[in-house]
Amino acid sequence: MYADALAADPDSSSMRRELDHATYRLLRGTRWLAVLCVVLAGALVDVFPADDRPAPELPIPVGQRLWFLFVMAVIWAFGAWRRYRRLRAGVQLNVRSLVRRGRWARVVLAQAGWAMVCALLIAEIPWTDRAVPQLLFWAGLVPTAATIWFDKKKTR
After folding, report:
1. Helix 103-124 and helix 89-101: axis angle, to 10°?
2. Domain boundaries, the chain
3. Minimal CB count within 10 Å: which of 86, 109, 112, 136?
4. At what angle do helices 89-101 and 13-45 cross, to 10 degrees?
């Protein structure tokens, strides 16, 4: 809607601001996908085993680790890539532009990237002990989750 309004009046600063805000909300959604991947990686390795259920043997078999890669690819394909590809060309350009000029947009993408690195490290390395995956779980989850609720009003 804002892209259509900007097409009619390209010099409108209020419409550009609203388009930037909507684009930033789109970028913020990528963090949720990354947090979901970290939580699923933690569940795969069972970083916090309970006494009432047996924890899986470590290291996790290669087949399960590869299956987790497929699950993460599906999450990102349906959650971000499919959504991004259906955007109009002007909005796609605005995403790139906002990332270049907006500090918080870069922070959001960096947090999503960091959480994904942690999820990949948890799930794909054949750990023999749960201490390092637990540390990676918290390192991927806490910084991302801590700012998800606090940056709703930021647009740049």
Report:
1. 90
2. 2-47+58-148
3. 86
4. 80
